[in-house]
Write a structure and sequence with these properties.
The chain is mainly alpha-helical. Helices cover 54% and strands 4% of the residues. The two termini are 12 Å apart. Bound molecules: zinc ion.
Length: 202
Amino acid sequence: MGPGKALARLTAKILNYGQCTPGTLAIAKFTQDDVAFGLAGATRLESLIVRVKWTADRSSVKPLCNELVREFELYAKRKRWYIKRKDVIKRMTVAMLLELEIVRRVGRRILPGPEVCGKCKGRKHRFSKQKSMWFPCVKCKSTGRPFWDEEARAKYCRMRTARWRDTWSPRYRLFGSFVAKREARGLEHVIKRCLRGSYGPV
Ligand SMILES: [Zn+2]
């Protein structure tokens, strides 16, 4: 795929940002060079997010996670949040990167998280003892893939679901929108610069 076509697909993807299909790598041939060129004006964080998510850049996974943890910890300090477990921000960040599918196949080994649905253990069906029958797994909608709900997030961050819901869930959403905004801004840079750049009309 040429850079022009890749960009057109990337633009379409952004317009549908809310409905991105998990696991698709629509711009697999979008090269590191294209992104490097496009990200020249972006901040380090924006650039790392785009590299990890859109070019599957392994080497940026850890720096991205560290950078986000640093940002979130600073924010927590400013807001004087009471933090019992030291690693909660780190665990929350990893959960978020996996749930938002910023870290996909290549990064999963670097940031390990659940591999399969915790209810059906990836079997896509669950056995009902009462009816002696197998039923489709409702939790993962029979995909067998890990799902993220409040319970799963709380478990990953090693706290009780009630505490997560009351205190951490709103914070998680806040940080999630922070990440989504940075990603959108990073992609805007790529599109604007590449469209105006040396690649010519799409
Ligand atoms: Zn399941």
